[in-house]
């Protein structure tokens, strides 16, 4: 049996679309009632399942991140936390007006723009707004189109139809995706000579986990807009009076065109740590820094950067052209970046390491005990690295994710948001209680933020 069958049967398909692309659509990718994508293997031939298994980021037959990176970036240094690396930076674009249109420091779309302007690519395949569902993979062929599609879309997307739409058109592209999508597209181009010629750059986005479509709907509903009336959403609205972590969620009501917004952290499920609507696949993912990408962009979640409302990217380059683009942008003053060391880069994703390395080991061990199939990972199953309290937390977080999907579905069926909120809030509150920082940690974190605020004020006044 091809392991893609286990992936789908155990709900671990992330819906990336890799198998659909590699089989020219013979494996269809369908939208589920949970608001996510999933491969449909009914009636698929064994030969196609084998192809699918070779490109699926969760199948045992596919090359893992280390194997792909060893081939792609053999000459680069490696670290188990980040994968291979060339340049490491933290920073942002210097245009303070433009930066409000990006989620973080704006370096993702700035770099993609440079790739188009230099003639490295004819276009970019990335996620932007679509008619229905709200977001999906699209192609931008000009800088204007590209810049009209900024910001993080915490929304599932499958690249199968989009890739098949550009295949064979003779154009070269940069492909943007979360780590599993990049691993999958890397494997797809190994199967497909035409796409191999066309995908010139692989641009990664750091990923904590993916949300189902219910994430956007649940927030909009909390703002008074029921799921069927949501016209548009913005997951990352910046506020110059607050820190970059205190961003807002906004939604537009189709009935009135009215726009409403609220600080994300004040909404039920607004903390990423609570993992509401997390896809099951993300419980089995150990790639944080898109280790198979030519470059990866994330948020530099460190007090020094967090206090700046504009947002700050953490960046790892693994490609000389892209590294040169960053360094030249710095010289021209279009971007402002600090050079980082590997430990600082890893520190920007503390929560991610707890969930995706420590947490993964516990989940794998739990599944092993329960006799459940799991994909082969680079993390070994076990409990020895964490205390009993942490094990309980990891399990509780998993429970919140699972319950959020079911209860939101029930809320939609009963047309009552309360059904979801009343079920999920007690779980979140109890989880929050057990993750409460100690008084000393809170004071230390606050002191660090205040210190960096003073440093920033002094620098700006000089
Ligand atoms: C699901 C998800 C989870 C994330 N989790 C983390 C995390 O845990 N830690 C962290 O540091 N950063 C995380 N990020 C990345 C972060 O939110 C920013 O996307 C990143 O820092 C780039 O910001 P920017 O200002 O440079 O990008 P912008 O200039 O705003 O441009 C964003 C670019 O990314 C593309 N894009 C947006 N969403 C997607 C998507 N889903 N798939 C493919 N392309 C997309 C857009 O089309 C655009 O080209 C996550 C992003 C996503 C989508
Ligand atoms: S390749 Fe992607 S869409 Fe296909 S089964 Fe694997 S995770 Fe699902
Ligand atoms: S956490 Fe991993 S599996 Fe989930 S969307 Fe992100 S990269 Fe993909």
From TrEMBL:
Residues 171-338 form the Coenzyme F420 hydrogenase/dehydrogenase beta subunit C-terminal domain. This is Coenzyme F420-reducing hydrogenase beta subunit. InterPro entries: Co_F420_Hydgase/DH_bsu_N, FRHB/FDHB/HCAR-like, FrhB_FdhB_C. The lineage of its organism: Bacteria, Bacillati, Actinomycetota, Actinomycetes, Micrococcales. One of its GO terms (molecular function) is oxidoreductase activity, acting on CH or CH2 groups, with an iron-sulfur protein as acceptor. Residues 88-163 form the Coenzyme F420 hydrogenase/dehydrogenase beta subunit N-terminal domain.
């Amino acid at each position: 049996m091809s392991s893609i069958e286990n992936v789908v049967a155990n709900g671990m398909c992330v819906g990336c679309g890799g198998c659909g692309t590699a089989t020219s659509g013979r494996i269809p990718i369908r939208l589920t009632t949970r608001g996510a994508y999933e491969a449909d293997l009914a009636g698929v031939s064994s030969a196609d399942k084998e192809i699918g298994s070779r490109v699926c980021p969760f199948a045992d037959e596919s090359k893992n991140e280390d194997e792909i990176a060893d081939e792609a970036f053999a000459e680069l240094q490696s670290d188990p936390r980040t994968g291979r690396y060339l340049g490491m930076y933290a920073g942002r674009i210097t245009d303070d007006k433009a930066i409000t249109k990006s989620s973080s420091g704006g370096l993702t779309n700035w770099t993609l723009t440079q790739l188009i302007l230099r003639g490295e690519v004819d276009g970019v395949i990335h996620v932007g707004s679509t008619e229905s569902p709200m977001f999906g993979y699209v192609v931008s062929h000009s800088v204007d189109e590209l810049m009209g599609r900024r910001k993080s879309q915490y929304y599932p997307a499958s690249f199968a139809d989009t890739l098949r739409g550009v295949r064979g058109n003779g154009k070269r592209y940069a492909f943007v995706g979360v780590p599993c999508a990049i691993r999958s597209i890397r494997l797809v181009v190994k199967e497909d000579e035409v796409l191999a010629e066309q995908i010139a750059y692989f641009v990664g986005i750091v990923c904590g986990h993916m949300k189902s479509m219910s994430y956007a709907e649940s927030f909009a509903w909390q703002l008074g807009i029921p799921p069927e009336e949501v016209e548009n959403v913005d997951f990352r609205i910046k506020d110059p009076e607050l820190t970059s972590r205190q961003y807002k969620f906004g939604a537009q009501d189709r009935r009135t065109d009215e726009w409403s917004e609220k600080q994300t952290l004040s909404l039920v499920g607004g903390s990423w740590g609570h993992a509401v609507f997390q896809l099951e696949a993300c419980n089995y993912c150990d790639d944080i820094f898109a280790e198979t990408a030519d470059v990866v962009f994330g948020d530099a979640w460190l007090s020094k950067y967090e206090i700046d409302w504009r947002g700050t990217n953490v960046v790892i380059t693994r490609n000389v052209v892209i590294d040169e683009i960053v360094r030249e942008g710095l010289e021209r003053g279009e971007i402002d970046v600090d050079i980082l060391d590997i430990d600082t880069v890893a520190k920007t994703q503390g929560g991610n390491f707890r969930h995706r390395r420590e947490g993964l080991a516990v989940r794998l061990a739990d599944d092993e005990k329960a006799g459940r199939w799991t994909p082969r990972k680079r993390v070994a199953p076990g409990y020895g690295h964490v205390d009993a309290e942490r094990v309980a937390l990891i399990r509780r977080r998993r429970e919140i994710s699972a319950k959020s999907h079911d209860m939101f579905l029930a809320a939609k069926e009963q047309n009552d948001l309360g059904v979801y909120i009343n079920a999920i809030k007690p779980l979140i509150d109890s989880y929050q209680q057990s993750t409460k920082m100690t008084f000393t940690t809170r004071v230390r974190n606050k002191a660090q933020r205040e210190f960096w605020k003073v440093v920033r004020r002094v620098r700006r006044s000089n």
